[in-house]
């Protein structure tokens, strides 16, 4: 099987929500393809397709959930490998990350958290459906540099603004770098709410996080 065929197979297995086949194909692919390529070129296109089919009424919530479960199963194979690759990296900063209030989409946020970890950040992942006060409470507790908030839906992105408003209300706005991202979020939105940075992909997020931190530390 060529690399492209392997990635196509993984895409199809995730779209159909077949956990066992997804894991088996990923294990095979790992002999030749690195974890990030598998995520970006096999798994993310699967979720795009699932989203398209859902919005066209071709599949329903249970199928979308099955695809997400297949994704999570595969990540149990990939995440340890990715983290091991970053183990020797020196600590560069601390991030508190989560998906905003009323939003339970975690897949994108989990990739960002994993990649930040491999890049040398100490990552505190709060999970999903996180209110602004909890982001800030945790950031204060662990003396974070960065608060990173994921929002995947048009109905939940406004809760990213909430984080900035809460920070301002508590006189803490300048203490933290606020990074936003997620399906519907873009640079225009980030500018509008006064976030410090935006990442279209997880890899962009890591790059922006590093740049902003270096600038803040005067490097
Ligand atoms: C899987 C999925 C689900 C799963 C989530 C399971 C889970 N454990 O996460 C389940 C089935 C639970 C679900 C539920 C719902 N979903 Co849904 N879901 C999806 C789907 C198919 C994939 C999302 C995903 O994981 N994408 C893959 C990841 C890798 O991409 P990503 O999240 O965008 O993340 C990348 C970047 O955005 C970025 N990033 C993400 N976060 C951050 C954060 C920072 C700081 C940075 C820098 C970068 C960054 O990095 C990631 C990697 O590059 C999308 C379709 C789509 N195309 O996105 C719909 C989608 C998001 N869902 C949608 C909807 C409507 C719903 C429901 C309301 C459906 C319903 N009727 O109940 C519920 C809402 C539940 C809730 N309250 O949150 C809509 C949202 C539409 C909108 N208006 O915004 C979408 C777009 C589908 C559609 N086309 O209609 N969903």
Describe, in plain words, how this protein is organized in 3D.
This protein is an alpha/beta fold and about 220 residues long. The chain folds into 2 domains: about 5-85, Methyltransferase, Methionine Synthase (B12-binding Domains), Chain A, domain 1 (Orthogonal Bundle); about 95-215, Cobalamin-binding domain (Rossmann fold), CATH 3.40.50.280. The protein contains 9 helices and 5 strands. The protein has helices at about 5-15, 20-30, 35-55, 60-85, 105-120, 130-140, 160-170, 185-195, 200-215, and strands at about 95-100, 120-125, 145-150, 175-180, 195-200. Strands 2-1-3-4-5 form a 5-stranded parallel sheet, sandwiched between helices. α3 runs antiparallel to α4 and α6 (about 130-140) crosses α7 (about 160-170). The radius of gyration is 18 Å and the shape is globular. It starts with a helix and ends with a helix. The structure holds cobalamin (B12). Cobalamin binds near residues 104, 150 and 182.
């Amino acid at each position: 099987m060529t690399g492209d065929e392997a990635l196509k197979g993984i895409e199809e297995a995730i779209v159909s929500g077949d956990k066992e086949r997804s894991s088996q194909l990923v294990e095979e692919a790992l002999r030749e393809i690195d974890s990030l390529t598998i995520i970006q070129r096999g798994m993310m296109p699967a979720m795009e397709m699932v989203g398209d089919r859902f919005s066209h009424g071709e599949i329903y919530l249970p199928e979308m959930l099955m695809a997400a479960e297949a994704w999570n199963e595969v990540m149990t194979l990939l995440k340890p490998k990715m983290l091991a690759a970053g183990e020797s990296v020196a600590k560069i900063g601390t991030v508190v990350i989560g998906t905003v209030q009323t939003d339970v989409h975690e897949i994108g946020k989990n990739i960002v958290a994993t990649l930040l970890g491999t890049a040398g950040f100490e990552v505190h992942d709060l999970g999903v459906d996180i209110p602004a006060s909890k982001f800030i409470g945790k950031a204060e507790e662990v003396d974070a540099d960065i608060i990173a908030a994921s929002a995947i839906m048009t109905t939940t992105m406004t809760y990213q603004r909430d984080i900035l408003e809460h920070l301002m209300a508590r006189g803490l706005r300048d203490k933290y770098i606020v990074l936003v991202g997620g399906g519907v979020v873009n640079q225009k939105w980030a500018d509008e709410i006064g976030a410090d940075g935006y990442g279209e992909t997880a890899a962009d997020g890591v790059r922006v996080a590093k740049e902003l931190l270096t600038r803040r530390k005067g490097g």
